[in-house]
Amino acid sequence: MEAGDIQGEMLNKTLVVSAPGKVILHGEHAVVHGKAALAVALNLRTFLRMSPRDDGKIFLQLPNIGVKLWWDLVQLQPLLDAFPADRTELKPPTPEQLARLKEFAGTADGPGEIHDVATVAFLYLYLSIAAKSGVLPSVELLVWSELPTGAGLGSSAAYSVCLAAALLSECSVVGYPLGEGQSLARWTEEELDVINKWAFQGEQVIHGNPSGVDNAVGTWGGALRYQSGKITPLKRVPTLRILLTNTKVPRSTKALVAGVREKLLKFPAIMEPVLISIDAISRECEGVLEAMADDSSQGHYSVLEELVDINQHHLDVIGVGHPALDRVCQATAALGLHSKLTGAGGGGCAITLLRPGPPPI
Ligand SMILES: Nc1ncnc2c1ncn2[C@@H]1O[C@H](COP(=O)(O)OP(=O)(O)OP(=O)(O)O)[C@@H](O)[C@H]1O
Ligand SMILES: C[C@@](O)(CCO)CC(=O)[O-]
Ligand SMILES: [Mg+2]
């Protein structure tokens, strides 16, 4: 996996930002309930291009989901009263704010799907960030991704990270990343922290109750352990070869996360031990990866493969499996390989751990 992080580049007043998707090795869903997850940045990215306009309009083009919308800024002005300018610390989006934005999104001009949650996430970040300066910038934004949307690879997080970085730069909350003569740059650690916190807001609009692991990887890149907001970069990680299989079964992370919460409330004594076990799998895997950094003997792979199998069974128990994912697990098992779902599950992508050397197919 190629380490990734947000990159920004200025091309004659046009800002281009990109952020990586992610794969969760272990810990999905458990991480929403305070357990540890291990995640790595993918070499597939989301790109955002923002250019200034001088006609008092704002354009939003989201070709991956067929959205093409524009508004006159005077239409957005009345919404600002729902976005306090003196916002000192980041609070979750309020139901009232989201209701007003969903209603407003219905008034946009343009042929695209106007109710997608991505439009609402954009409006939420745009108004929240612009409210700090009170000036609504007239810009056009195009967001395009290499990532399949809704497939467990962190597409919503990469989308939110790009939006946050671009809008925070436009409103001078963070700097423009590029210095004189530079063609590619990243923001400072402090600025990345601000971008990550705002990206989490975007995830809250899209996901409802995200843990923050996805936007953390989209912001910081590389490989990391994430637990309850604490980001620990994994410094010594061996190169792992991982096969990604997209079942192409559509699903909603928000609905899957809500389903696990319901099950946890219904069967706490049954579900909590499963989440604790997933936490232990994440920690065990981290230890093995550290050991592999010095010694990539095959023995370590056997342990990693066992952890993949145990985690996949736990994910079935908490209700986020899918027959299509089972088929991937069975097909790879027939070749002596080990697979698990990645991300929210219920369809989407599975990961298969490959050993060094030629694949068995
Ligand atoms: N490139 C994009 N352009 C516009 N909207 C996007 C884009 N990528 C993701 N989204 C938004 O994110 C939603 C998918 O988010 P969801 O969290 O369900 O899937 P995911 O992030 O791909 O998977 P996971 O959260 O399991 O990693 C899409 O329906 C859309 O609203
Ligand atoms: C399912 C989940 O754990 C990972 C989704 O990629 C949700 C989250 O942590 O926000
Ligand atoms: Mg997502």
From TrEMBL:
What pathway annotation does it carry?
Isoprenoid biosynthesis; isopentenyl diphosphate biosynthesis via mevalonate pathway; isopentenyl diphosphate from (R)-mevalonate: step 1/3
- Per UniProt, residues of the GHMP kinase N-terminal domain are 129-218
Nucleotide-binding found in the keyword field: yes
Task: Write out the annotated subcellular location.
Answer: Cytoplasm
What PROSITE patterns is this protein classified in?
Answer: GHMP_KINASES_ATP (PS00627)
Entry annotated with the keyword Phosphoprotein: no
Major subcellular site: cytoplasm
- Name the EC number(s): 2.7.1.36
Q: Which Pfam families match?
A: GHMP_kinases_C, GHMP_kinases_N
InterPro entries linked to this entry: GHMP_kinase_C_dom, GHMP_kinase_C_sf, GHMP_kinase_N_dom, GHMP_knse_ATP-bd_CS, Mev_gal_kin, Ribosomal_Su5_D2-typ_SF, Ribsml_uS5_D2-typ_fold_subgr
This enzyme catalyses: (R)-mevalonate + ATP = (R)-5-phosphomevalonate + ADP + H(+)
- Please name the top-level EC class of this enzyme: transferase
Q: Which UniProt keywords apply?
A: ATP-binding, Cholesterol biosynthesis, Cholesterol metabolism, Cytoplasm, Kinase, Lipid biosynthesis, Lipid metabolism, Magnesium, Nucleotide-binding, Steroid biosynthesis, Steroid metabolism, Sterol biosynthesis, Sterol metabolism, Transferase
Tell me a Gene Ontology molecular-function term this record carries.
Answer: kinase activity
What positions does the domain GHMP kinase C-terminal occupy?
Answer: 299-354
Describe its function: Catalyzes the phosphorylation of mevalonate to mevalonate 5-phosphate, a key step in isoprenoid and cholesterol biosynthesis.
| Similarity-based family | Belongs to the GHMP kinase family. Mevalonate kinase subfamily.
Question: What PANTHER family has UniProt attached to this entry?
Answer: MEVALONATE KINASE
User: Under which name does UniProt file this protein?
Assistant: Mevalonate kinase
Q: Which organism is it from?
A: Pogona vitticeps
